[in-house]
Each structure stands twice: as structure tokens, then as C-alpha cells.
Amino acid sequence: MFEVIYVEEQLIDHPRVLEIKKKYPHSEIKLINSIQDVFGRVKKPYLQKRFNLNLFLGEKKGQLVKLAPAAYGLTGEPHYYFIHAYNCIYECNYCYLQGYFHSPDIVLFLNHDEISQEIKQVAKSYHADHPDKKVWFHAGEYSDSLALSHLSGELNHYFKLFKELKDCKLELRTKSINIKELLKEEPLENVITSFSLSPAHRIKSNDLKTPPLKARLEAIGTLVERGFPIGIHFDPIIYDDQFIPSYEELVDLLLEKISADKIHYISLGVVRFTKEVYQKVQKNYPESDLLAQEFVRSFDNKIRYNRPMRLWMLGKIKQILLDKGMALDRIYLCMEDQDYDPMVINHES
Ligand code: SF4
Fold first, then answer.
1. Which mutation among 47, 144, 203 tests ligand 1's pocket best, with the greatest number of atoms within 8 A of CB?
2. Mean pLDDT in each 10-residue stretch from start to end of the chain (349 residues)?
3. Count: domains in the chain
4. How far apart (Å, rounded) are the C-alpha atoms in residues 202 and 240?
5. CATH of the domain at 337
6. Cβ atoms of residues 127 and 167 within 8 Å
7. 90: which residues sit within 8 A by CB, 6+ positions away?
8. Which domain holds residue 343?
């Protein structure tokens, strides 16, 4: 899978590095001083990930935990994300990573102790002023949280950390069915695995190289049986002529695997792009039906459907969820302005 594995020289005897080297005996190993010196220094086209992928193993420098953008999660609680990886083995054709780094190569950061220290520090500072609030931490802002968990091997580390941090929550965001490492852990109430789902035909045409809906639902079922808390993201929501029936079907299939009262939250996010990412989509996926959609530049400069269309789409899906028994306070809107209620707009339109 990896042609070259670049390793920061101070990590050459790190147990995780030794294990990864053993798993890829045919990869060439190159020692480097720092990931920053090599990763993305020469531009590598995004779609080259189909034929040639390298792996970087190193330590994350600088700020390790960052405040998440507004509307990232349930409102009223602060949200942070931590960075332990860059890039992803999947190829969703709307993925913002295609416009983010100069290379699709995978980077795994191994300094989990330092990341954990920063998580503890952030939680402590926040709780000093708000002792009654939960603080959320999200993994997988620049990667998929589970897809490479057998390689990166950090889940046990973060389960131990969050067992201690009872006033904090950890979200593992994924489209993967690679739950083997997760199943080795004892479920914790405050560690939530959240799956991004779309109707089956949209997964086929947009979430390239990801597990199909059926397999993701199976993984959810297995985790529910084993007592792992589950969150769901309907994100990105894309309009087509099967929009309403396909989301009705998706909710029905989901509720066959997990009852509505067991879903910790469902977030709804309509497809959106920065200008740069949209240009990458045009270049990388010129045949995609994403490009036939009518988008405008919206309030935050992102490219999306116009506001009435977004409100209509969010309202319709929210109504489907409510009709099928999902509690209102567990549905939230992702990356949208929060000062409106799509239900009201939906009733008006
Ligand atoms: S799973 Fe997420 S990170 Fe990976 S390609 Fe898809 S959108 Fe990007």
C-alpha cells in the first residue's frame, strides 16, 4: 500500500514504527529530520493517491488541539479537535482534503502523550470557568478516525484518557467499518463513534472507495450490540430527484440497527465547498453530478445551495427524523448559521 515510509529519525525505534515496518516489509524506509521538510514540499496531485501513496510517521508540532468552527456539534457546549493524522485512504469526491494539503500522502502523528496533555490542559482551563459543562473533543478533522486505526493504534490511548476525563466527550468520526480495534476497548459513555451516512446510491456515486451503506449499518449494529455509544451525521446532504424517498429509506434502515433513543445525536449538513475545493472537484471529477447542482456563494463565502433550498432540505430531513421518533434536541445542524429554525421555514415554503 505504501511505496515509501518516511520516518522522523527520533522515532526509528518507536514501537509503533517497528510494527508498521513489519506490516509493510516491501516499503522503502526513508529517515527524515521533520515531516514539515518533506510532506507536500513537492506538489503531488490528489488523484495520485489511486496509484502511489506514501506514509509519514512523525510528531505533531505547534498547536495540537484547536477550537472547532461554530456549529461543529451540539450547541451550548465547546468543541475542540485534535490533530493526530492528515489525509485519508478514501476518495469522497466532495472531500475538502483535496484542496487542503499539497499532497494526498498519509501522515500519522505518534506523539499521543503530548496531544493528551494538551487535551487535559484545554479541558482544565475551560472547566475552571464552566465547571458544569462538558467539553467535546473530536478526532478525524483531517482524516477518518477508524479507517487506519489498526495501523495508527491510538484508540487504546484515547480510551484510557477519556476514562479519566469524565467531564469531556470524545467523538470518533468515520465512514469506515474498520471497527476491530474499537471492539478491543470497553465502551465508555463519553466516547462516541459517529458514522457519516448518505442514501446508498449517493454513497456509490460520491463516497468513492468507502464501505457501502449496508456495511456501515452492519458496523453500527455490531457496535450497538456491544454497548458503544453512536452518533450519526447525515452529511453531506445532496439533492437529487430521489431526495425525500431516499432519506426516508435511509432513516428506516438506520432505525433497524439502532433505536432512535439510542442515537446520541444526528447532525445534518448540506454539501458545501470552499472556492478552492470546488475548483478541485471540477478538475478531479468533471463527470460528477455534483457539478450539475445549482450552487451559490453563501454567507460564509462557501459554495452551497441557495439559502431557501438549504432550509427546505434540512427541514424535510428533520421532519422525517421527527416523524420516525428522533427527539428534537438530538438533531443539530452542522456548519450552518444557527439563528434560524428550518422547521419554521419549511412550514412556510
Ligand atoms: S472519509 Fe472523510 S476524510 Fe476521507 S475522503 Fe471521505 S470526506 Fe475525505
1. 144
2. 96 97 96 95 92 96 89 78 95 92 96 97 95 92 95 97 97 97 98 98 97 98 98 96 98 98 96 93 95 88 92 96 96 64 30
3. 1
4. 9
5. 3.80.30.30
6. yes
7. 144, 147, 175, 176, 207, 208, 209, 210
8. 2-348
